[in-house]
Amino acid sequence: MSKNKLSKGQQRRVKANHQRRLKTTAEKADYDDNLFGETSEGIVISRFGMHADVESADGSVHRCNIRRTIRSLVTGDRVVWRPGKDAADGVSVKGIVEAVHDRASVLTRPDFYDGVKPIAANIDQIVVVSAILPELSLNIIDRYLVACEAQDIEPLIVLNKIDLLDDDGLRFVNEQMDIYRNIGYACCWFPVGLRTALSRWKRP
Question: Which stretches does DSSP call E strand in 102-180?
């Protein structure tokens, strides 16, 4: 005896029940609250997959899982998170990001699938770093300045490896930077070893 085929309405109900069971299973498989400590405030300093590194108020960095209910999380987000406790078997448990505060600003880029994708949040300043060799690219600097202006974020133009220029090259670069200084952009430059130079430099 042949089986009766399901009607379209029955097929929809079967599919809906299946999705509901999947959702219930996923929620049950979510993280056990008993594995985590009290909530605290923090800032996301990096994000990869379903994990993020969160910097706490004391400056320490904690690897955290991300709740499935959080739809978007990027570097710079201010979050509510909980540290992980050591499990009974001695295994260290990652912390967990519980919620994300509203963003004061967000830097985005075009994305083929999502249209516009956020890449960083709550940015106070963008440092546009460009090397003067093999060639100073004003086009790249201009593109970043446009992004800064679009988000009302203060830019700082930094030229690296400036000590590799001779007098003529230094004069030329200084003239190019005058273009930006004359319209209100701050510019500075450093010798080879930018990281060391930046560690000694303090903004006035």
Answer: 106-111, 115-121, 125-131, 154-160
Three-state secondary-structure class, residue 74: coil
Local structure of residue 114 (DSSP, 8 states): T
pTM comes to: 0.65
What is the helix (H) or strand (E) element at residue 155, kind and residue range? Answer: strand 154-160
Residue 65 near residue 82 (C-beta atoms within 8 A): no
Q: Give how far the C-alpha of residue 165 lies from the chain's centroid of Cα atoms, to the nearest Å.
A: 35
Ordered by where they begin, the domains of the chain are: 35-107 (2.40.50.140), 124-200 (3.40.50.300)
Which tokens go with 127?
């440092």
Q: What is the pLDDT of residue 29?
A: 47
Distance CA 24, CA 18 (A): 10
Q: What is the pLDDT of residues 134-148, one digit of tens each?
A: 888 899 899 989 988
3-state secondary structure of 68: coil
Q: What values do phi and psi take at 26, rounded to 5?
A: -65, -40
